Amino acid sequence: MATHVLALDQGTTSSRSILFDRRGRAVASAQQEFPQIYPSPGHVEHDPLAIWKSQLKTARAALRKAGKSAQDVATIGITNQRETVVLWDRKTGRPIDNALVWQSRITTPLCEKLRQDGWEETIRSKTGLIIDPYFSGTKFRYLLDKHKLRRRAAKGEILAGTVDSWLLWNLTGGAVHATDYSNASRTMLYNIHTLDWDDELLDLLKVPRQMLPEVRDSSGEFGVTKKALFGAEIPICGVAGDQQAATFGQACFERGMAKNTYGTGCFILLNVGRKPIAAPPGLLTTIGWGINGRITYCLEGSVFIGGAAVQWLRDGLKLIRKSSDIEELAKSVPDSGGIYLVPAFVGLGAPHWDSYARGLLIGLDRSTTGGHIARAAVEAMAYQSHDVIDMMASQSKVRLKTLRVDGGAAVNNDLLQFQADLLGKPVQRPVITETTALGAAYLAGLAAKVWGSTAELAKQWELDREFPPQLATSERKRLINGWSSAVTRSKRWLAD
Ligand SMILES: Nc1ncnc2c1ncn2[C@@H]1O[C@H](COP(=O)(O)OP(=O)(O)O)[C@@H](O)[C@H]1O
Ligand SMILES: O=P(O)(O)OC[C@H](O)CO
């Protein structure tokens, strides 16, 4: 009997596949990086075929490593870097151009124009999003304009989608053009109240509905893989954007439960229940997942530079050799010595959304060492996450019950302790931190009846370590005031 679930985790810098058993344990995994393409400053692209080929290769490798075949796999779940868009030809399956990656700022002028024309409120109320090049809508329009494909798109000859749809199309041999609620909610074209592509916004961005995927439950049927790919057909029963999948993998099933993923950036999602509550300033309302047509909504705050600041210390300043060395260097000093690093390297994301802000290191004197800077870089992840979580908790009327954490930098105990200290709330790290892939596996496995209910999944969540807050309120306030004034100084740097 097929008892395993294969998760395909298509990330920004690499494709990963993990095979899970019934108890949610990773049996085997494989990962492959693929090239990042930077055609001009602020513009990032991927080759869609490199995405597909690397994903397929890792899926096959994970099965091989586990000594399993397609017959052992009950279902596949897909999770993906979000907002990144691909256009392809329905007949040939060939991509029209490189994928425009979520980080790309290429549509900044178009977004500026939408803002000037007063679309902010309409877009916010319909989609839960703010106007920013981050989201897919303006990217679809950019590619349609660039290749003059609107007429063919309107006839359904050109298809468009986020990375999940692109993988689904290839996995099913061109039989299925679909996405799930969570990915659709990141396009700036999807109405999160009516649960449909929004005609007014499609018109505004001149995106023909015919090219867009059908939107389905995150946990449900998405077709089967083409037999030639794995030797037998495997049902695909789960799809979700990677941050939503991580929230699901962390078993944040109840209102008030939140997760923070500390990776290149930091992505915080708070489950707010069955109603799409309006987000506080600077935050987004987004769809977490849909199961049997029932939607769970989340508030989201995305911090663009988290662990990437540690990479900068490694590659730019050469203060450390590998990312994990940051821990020892940071421990060489008792505190940051009043140093703050605001890593606004690509502007600031939530809750500030200032694309003109730039990085700032402040408070230096002759006693400053690499240790202080290392500490400031780690603390910056916690400060930025604090700003988002504080805004979520104080202005949304949803009480934060738990903060669960994951991502590559969540191995850093000092970071998590500092986070708990800043929030005045405990932080919980689970045993399994591959929560993105696990979430995709759970969504697929629920639909394929590998697991019976979310209650059963919640029981599988296991605590590795809890970090209780230890700092006095006055000290917490002092630190946060210092941080806030550093952030203020970094804002609008380029604009001025
Ligand atoms: N011990 C550590 N302390 C702080 N940051 C770390 C540590 N180990 C890794 N990182 C950072 O975590 C990030 C990698 O996390 P990961 O979840 O793999 O990222 P992503 O999925 O966004 O590529 C890198 O930016 C790296 O610098
Ligand atoms: O691929 P990641 O982990 O960097 O995640 C990217 C996010 O989905 C962008 O919104």
Automatic annotation (TrEMBL):
Residues reported in the UniProt entry to bind ATP: 12-14, 264, 307, 311, 408
GO molecular function: ATP binding; glycerol kinase activity
Function of the protein: Key enzyme in the regulation of glycerol uptake and metabolism. Catalyzes the phosphorylation of glycerol to yield sn-glycerol 3-phosphate.
GO CC entries: cytosol
PANTHER family per UniProt: GLYCEROL KINASE, SUGAR KINASE
Domain annotation Carbohydrate kinase FGGY C-terminal: ranges: 259-448
SUPFAM superfamilies assigned: Actin-like ATPase domain
Gene Ontology biological process terms in this record: glycerol catabolic process; glycerol-3-phosphate metabolic process
Regulation: Inhibited by fructose 1,6-bisphosphate (FBP).
Protein family per UniProt: Belongs to the FGGY kinase family.
Protein name listed in UniProt: Glycerol kinase
InterPro entries listed in its UniProt record: ATPase_NBD, Carb_kinase_FGGY, Carb_kinase_FGGY_CS, FGGY_C, FGGY_N, Glycerol_kin
Metabolic or biological pathway, per its Swiss-Prot or TrEMBL entry: Polyol metabolism; glycerol degradation via glycerol kinase pathway; sn-glycerol 3-phosphate from glycerol: step 1/1
Catalytic activity from the UniProt record: glycerol + ATP = sn-glycerol 3-phosphate + ADP + H(+)
Keywords: ATP-binding, Glycerol metabolism, Kinase, Nucleotide-binding, Transferase
Positions with a binding annotation for sn-glycerol 3-phosphate: 12, 82-83, 134, 242
UniProt-annotated binding residues for ADP: 12, 16, 264, 307, 408, 412
Entry binding sites for glycerol: 82-83, 134, 242-243
Keyword check for Acyltransferase: no
Pfam family, one: FGGY_C
E.C. number: 2.7.1.30
Gene source species: Botrimarina mediterranea
Tree of life domain: Bacteria
Residue ranges occupied by any Carbohydrate kinase FGGY N-terminal domain in the UniProt entry: 5-249
